[in-house]
Amino acid sequence: MTSTKGSPGLTILMVENKEDTACLLEFVLQKNGYRVIHSNNGSQAKSLISAMDPPDAVLLDMTLPDTTGLDLLDYLRTQTRWQTTPVALLTTNVESLDSVRAAGLGVNDYILKPVSPTRLAMRVNRLLADSKRKQPRVA
Question: What is the architecture of the domain spanning 11-134?
Answer without folding.
Answer: 3-Layer(aba) Sandwich (3.40)
